[in-house]
Amino acid sequence: MNILALILSLSFVMIAYFLSAAFKLGLGRDLLITTIRATIQLMIVGYILKIVFGFDNPFAMILMLLLMITVATKNAAKQGRGLPYVFWKIFITITIVEIITQGFLLGLKIVPATPQYIIPISGMIIGNSMIIANLFLNRLKGEVEIRKEEILLVLSLGGSVKQAIYPILKRSIKSSLIPTIEGQKTIGLVQLPGMMTGQIIAGADPIQAVRFQLLIVFLIMSAATLTAIVLGFLIYPGLFNKEQQLDVHVFLKKGK
């Protein structure tokens, strides 16, 4: 795609902008800001990746991955504002998920150990983990606020912190995974995923493109489950104080 074609593709944004204005949806400003941010961010990333691929240096690649994890963590941490050390707990979770998934990929030699494979696949893993973290924290917050009396009752009857929070933790983990699982059920029937579509447009054999896409599907489901479970068990102790009492105002405090 040349620059002229890219400029012409802005017509789609303008259609959305004028429709928003016509129906008074109030989305015009957000559409323009999103378009500008996406353009700047993707262009910067494109040049950075070009430099990283050119170096073919593991340290440059690791630095790029750390940057991606940090940005994803910062975004997800907004949802858990008030929880003790939520930023670091999310950072550790995403890092663990990245190490495990990439460890399997590289250890079993499913993909080559090159930046051209590791960085794009890591981007999908990290991005998906960020979304799951957001969904989990949002659900956990709602469940704790709704069922705090139930938690207090279990604790007052001599139950442990784990016994009091486990049903809520389980429900929050399950709920955060539903969009990912439901989305994979119709893959290929309702939509052709991004990686598969990109490879086909680039001229790759459709069967080969399907194989790579299946790899990503399996990775995403695994990464989503790992993210929700690991983050859940890192987060829930922060809901209670040193006396093992529920801190009902934990989400209202200023995050650390």
Structure, described:
This protein has helices at 3-8, 11-22, 28-55, 58-77, 86-107, 115-146, 148-156, 161-185, 194-201, 206-235. The protein has 10 helices and no strands. With 256 residues, the protein is mainly α. Helix 2 (11-22) runs antiparallel to helix 3 and helix 5 crosses helix 6 (115-146). The mean pLDDT is 88. The radius of gyration is 21 Å and the shape is globular. It has 2 domains: 1-55; 58-252, no CATH class.
Succession of helices and strands: HHHHHHHHHH
The overall pLDDT, averaged over residues, is 88
Please summarize the sheet with the most strands: none
What is the beta-strand fraction?
Answer: under 5%
Distance between termini?
45 Å
The count of DSSP E runs of length 2 or more, i.e. the number of strands, is: 0
Number of helices: 10
Count structural domains: 2
> Nearest-angstrom radius of gyration?
21 Å
Helix content: over 70%
Which structural class do the helices and strands define? mainly alpha
Unreliable segments of 5+ consecutive residues: none
The gross shape turns out to be globular
Summary keywords:
single chain, 256 residues, mainly alpha, 10 helices, globular
Summarize this entry quickly.
This protein is mainly alpha-helical.
Q: How are the SSEs placed, and which strands pair?
A:
Blueprint: H1 3-8, H2 11-22, H3 28-55, H4 58-77, H5 86-107, H6 115-146, H7 148-156, H8 161-185, H9 194-201, H10 206-235
